[in-house]
């Protein structure tokens, strides 16, 4: 038995296989998603799946909002006793339904077929404030805090819109491109004698989510 390594440039596939002179074998399995679904955000444009196969294969999905990129839909594997490491890119439409949705990726290889599960969240990738279930908890700031921070990952061009009545609060940035972002929230001391809140709306690829920022009142003096 010997091990050979080679590259399939047409599909950008890194392949490694073991060739044997004994019995032929047939194997196909998903690596990503594996035993758990692949999770993607509402504005996410693309993600990859990974699998192994000793057979020529075809990939398809059961929904229109999740599609296999054309160049990855099939591959002829003309090797005997070859287990090939493969990957493929999926493209997603934005999830503007407000509900979680599920797609099945069908992998057909020879006489074998497997299904992988993709779950698309109904919300954006916001990490500050933190998420509780599908909702966000308010970003809580002390009455004398002068700065806070919003943190998120956008998968497209994004905007932050502050409601007009929140004149006590300013944002360091209100638009930008995809990637990890941190936006500084600047405010004055809360002298109103009551908690005050503002709503900031984050929008990316047509998906919007409201973020509540609350500045507490000054504690009563004893």
Task: Characterize this entry briefly.
With 222 residues, this protein is an all-beta fold.
What does this structure look like?
There is one protein chain. The protein has 222 residues and is an all-beta fold. The chain has 2 domains: 2-120, Immunoglobulin-like, CATH 2.60.40.10; 125-215, Immunoglobulin-like, CATH 2.60.40. It has no helices and 22 strands. It has strands at 2-8, 13-19, 28-32, 38-40, 46-53, 57-61, 66-68, 74-75, 84-92, 101-109, 112-120, 125-128, 131-132, 135-136, 139-141, 147-154, 158-162, 169-171, 175-176, 179-187, 196-204, 207-215. Residues 1-22 have low confidence and may be disordered.
What tags apply to this protein structure?
mainly beta; Immunoglobulin-like; 222 residues; 5-stranded mixed β-sheet; 2 domains; single chain; disordered N terminus
Q: Outline the low-pLDDT stretches.
A: 1-22
Count of structural domains: 2
Overall SS class: mainly beta
Spatial arrangement of strands, main beta sheet: 4-11-10-6-8
What average pLDDT do the residues reach?
Answer: 87
Termini distance? Answer: 82 Å
- CATH class designation of the largest domain: Mainly Beta
Portion of residues within helices: under 10%
H-E order = EEEEEEEEEEEEEEEEEEEEEE
Computed CA radius of gyration, to the nearest angstrom: 24 Å
Strand content: over 45%
């Amino acid at each position: 038995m010997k091990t050979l390594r080679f590259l399939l440039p047409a599909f950008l596939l890194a392949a490694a296989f073991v060739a044997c002179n004994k019995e032929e074998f047939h194997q196909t399995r998903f690596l990503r998603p594996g035993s758990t679904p692949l999770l993607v955000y509402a504005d996410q444009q693309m993600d990859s799946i990974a699998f192994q196969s000793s057979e020529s294969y075809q990939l398809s999905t059961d929904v229109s909002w999740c599609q296999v990129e054309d160049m990855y839909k099939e591959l002829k594997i003309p090797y005997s006793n070859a287990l090939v490491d493969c990957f493929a890119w999926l493209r997603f439409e934005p999830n503007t339904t407000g509900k979680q949705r599920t797609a099945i990726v069908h992998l057909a290889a020879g006489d074998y077929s497997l299904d992988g599960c993709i779950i698309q969240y109904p919300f954006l990738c916001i990490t500050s404030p933190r998420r509780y279930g599908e909702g966000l908890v308010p970003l809580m700031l002390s009455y004398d805090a002068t700065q806070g921070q919003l943190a998120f990952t956008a998968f497209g061009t994004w905007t932050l819109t502050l409601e007009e009545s929140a004149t006590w609060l300013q944002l360091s940035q209100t638009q930008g491109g995809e990637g990890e972002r941190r936006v500084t929230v600047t405010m004055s001391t809360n002298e109103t004698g009551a908690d005050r809140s503002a709503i900031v709306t984050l929008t990316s690829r047509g998906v919007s989510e409201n973020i509540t920022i609350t500045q507490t009142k000054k504690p009563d003096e004893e």
